[in-house]
Amino acid sequence: MSSLVDKSLLEQLRRLPDPERSGKWPTERLNCLRDAGVFGWGLPTELGGRVVDSADLLEGYLDLAHACLTTAFILTQRDAACHRIAVSTNGELRQRLLPDHCAGRAMATVGISHLSTSRQHWSKPSVIANRTSDGFELTGEAPWVTGAGHVDLLVTGATLESGDQILVAIPAGRRGLGIGAPMKLLALDAAETGTVLLDHVLVGSDEVICGPLPNVMKIGPTGGTGSLTTTAVATGAAARTLDGLKRELSARPELAVVIEPLACEHATLKAELLLTARDSLDASPLRAIAESLRFRANSLAARLAQAYLCCAKGAGFVSGHPAEQSLREAMFFQVWSCPPAVTTRTLTELASES
User: Fold this and answer.
1) Would you say 289 and 276 are in contact if contact means Cβ atoms under 8 Å apart?
2) 3-class secondary-structure state, position 292
3) HSE (side-chain half, CA atoms, 13 Å) at 248
4) How far apart are CA 277 and CA 242, in angstroms?
């Protein structure tokens, strides 16, 4: 268990209704994170944050995903927004926004997938920015935005005619900002992910986080697509499935031949993930290692879920059983912030003969 997450927090989370079953935004679980100081992880101490080393931060995400994948996922989206602001050269923006976000008095989310993974094949940028006398005007759609109807701030991006890009922090309620209905998904419906529409939304120069620059998503050490954070969340979700398999094992010892190797694989993956976070690696080797770890986490989460369903038999095929929930949640990692190299390896594995 991470030094950041104690047993009392995990017990509080587990006592509350599972949002995957209720389908409701997990306000009470997020309040538990706020009260435990989770919203300050990794943010500047002078603004109310807490210094956290990379390995402890990943283990914290892993523990929270073990307890509740939906809550952990929402946290990653909030953290992505706040960490982008934290590394911004816009000092006034940091000073103005981060104290409330570190304390949990405000909530944020991101809508930046159109600059990294989604809609990259489109001939026209998903969100276009035009210069104004005091900033920019944004028009378009930001897809895959989590919890837009529950936040105070949206961090999103846009592309200028020149091809340069900007990241901006837009307060909720800004004129022209429209929140689409959440999509009905295979899992994590309670995270309320949908499209945010931008209709000539004015953004001041004091609300610009970064840019205009080429490939603005590559600026700063903020994780990004296929980062170790996503792998930690996948590994945490896999741990919850492993718990279910171990419950099956307690009643059926003959399953040990299947479950014990999977448990060993999970322990090895977790250890390598945390070791990688502690090592100082150059960008190129780290990217290759991160993609390999993400592929292994995705594969393990899927295989554990399939094994759980097989062990639970027909009962596991009934809606609401932990096995069917594990299977649906495992599929999330095949599409969430998944680099092309990881998808290619997954498809190769699926196409190969055993």
Assistant:
1) yes
2) helix
3) 25
4) 23
Tokens read off for 306: 């399939």
Spatial contact of 170 and 108, defined as CB atoms under 8 Å apart: no
What size, in residues, is the chain? 354
Contact 228, 277 (CB under 8 A): yes
8: Cβ contacts below 8 Å, ≥ 6 apart: none
CA distance 307 to 235: 16
User: CA nearest 328: which of 337, 314, 317?
Assistant: 317
Burial of 303 (C-beta count, 10 Å sphere; 0-12/13-18/19+): middle
CA–CA separation, 79 vs 25, rounded Å?
A: 17
pLDDT digits (tens, 9 = 90+) for 185-232: 999 999 999 999 999 999 999 999 998 999 888 776 544 444 899 999
Amino acid, res. 90 = N
Mean pLDDT of 242-269: 95
SS3 letters across 168-192: EEEECCCCCEEECCCCCCCCCHHHC
What's this model's pTM, rounded to 2 decimal places? 0.94
CA 333 to CA 331: how far, in whole Å? Answer: 5
Q: What three-state secondary structure class fits 201?
A: strand
Beta strand 165-171 pairing with 208-213: antiparallel
Q: What is the Cα–Cα distance from 179 to 15, expressed in whole angstroms?
A: 31
288: phi > 0 → left, psi -120 to 50 → alpha, else beta; which? alpha
Nearest to 293 by CA among 345, 258, 336, 242: 345
Tokens 């990794």 locate to 42
Give the C-alpha separation, 34 to 57, whole Å.
Answer: 16
Query: Tell me: the pLDDT tens digits for 4-39?
Result: 999 999 999 999 999 999 999 999 999 999 999 999
* Rounded-to-integer distance, Cα 53 and Cα 299, Å: 27
Render pLDDT for 118-133 as a digit per residue (tens, 0 to 9).
554 456 889 999 999 9
